[in-house]
Amino acid sequence: MFNRLQQKWKVNGLQVALILCTFAIGGSLTGYVGRKLMNLFDIGPEWLWIVVYILLVTLLWPLAVLLVSIPFGQFRFFVSYLKKMGKRMGIISREEPGAGSQGPVKQIAIFASGAGSNAQKIIDHFRENERVKIALIVCNKPEAGVLKIAENEGIPALLIEKEQFFRGNAYVPALKEKNINLIVLAGFLWKIPVALIQAYPGKIVNIHPALLPKYGGKGMYGQFVHAAVIAAGEKESGITIHYVDEHYDHGDIIFQAICPVFSGDTPELLAKRIHELEHKHFPVVVEELLLRGV
Ligand code: GRF
Questions:
Q1: Mean pLDDT of the chain
Q2: What is the architecture of the domain spanning 106-291?
Q3: Distance from the CA of 276 to the center of ligand 1, in angstroms?
Q4: Domain with CATH 3.40.50.170 in the chain
Q5: CA 238–ligand 1 middle distance (angstroms)
Q6: Among the listed residues 188, 128, 122, 129, the one whose alpha carbon sits nearest the alpha carbon of residue 160
Q7: Which atom of ligand 1 is nearest to the CA of 239?
Q8: Mind listing the pLDDT tens digit for each residue in 239-269?
Q9: Bigger pLDDT: 8 vs 138
């Protein structure tokens, strides 16, 4: 049941526990305050008392759960939960898909083959956003941490196979079937075949842990990048988010952010600083791209 709730609400295990606590405490608080308020009035026949009590707790309950959700850190979840309930009950009007400036829901596929910390940040960033969905995690390593993230988050994962992938368009139907609008490479090491780039022109972005055009290209990934930056005596490094073209780490640059390289830095220390930059900026840049209509 816990797993089903994770998938339904698109949250992690800890959040399910916090949400359930909020429901329980919010419910008890509603009953308690409801009875106290009812005691203030002398309502005649029993049936009327019951009707008024039901109406009162119906009004109190949303306020109580919103209040309790604040210390549990689940306020955003409950705001969107109550909105959904309101829409279902016809209290809040439903937006037609495609109406106004909102447009249809954007579907993102994240390609990753590592720990997936960037994937997790992107998932967290869009968790309460009803206009954006992380629809698929694509991965080429069965043991990659990102697959565990996909499982925890209830996001479908596609484990791809090398020969088929480099055949070019083998996985395009799977992406099209999910109506993917944007492909985000977050620690994906295989070169993207031309057929896939052509199927998603200007809709594939990558993050690279250095300031391109320096320290990019084949073999420049992970600690190799940071080791090269340190060995060259650079005083600064950073991150680059760029469109993907036929060459490694080469497409047009969308965004860069800089961090210092200190004397005595190791690749591990620099990697940590770079990861912080990535986590801070990558989800926001992805959102800006979607807003621009990518
Ligand atoms: C990031 O440093 C990214 O720049 C690079 O691969 C790393 C992925 O890290 N392309 P994680 O798997 O998201 O933690």
A1: 91
A2: 3-Layer(aba) Sandwich (3.40)
A3: 11
A4: 106-291
A5: 13
A6: 188
A7: 4
A8: 999 999 988 888 999 999 999 999 999 999 9
A9: 138
